[in-house]
Amino acid sequence: MAIGLAMALRMSTAILAANFNAYRPGRILGLFACAIAVGRMTGPTLGGLLIQLGGWPWIFGMNLIIGFVVSAAVFNIFRGSGKRHSKRFDVWGSLALLVGDNRHSWLA
Question: Is the pTM of this model over 0.70?
Answer without folding.
Answer: no
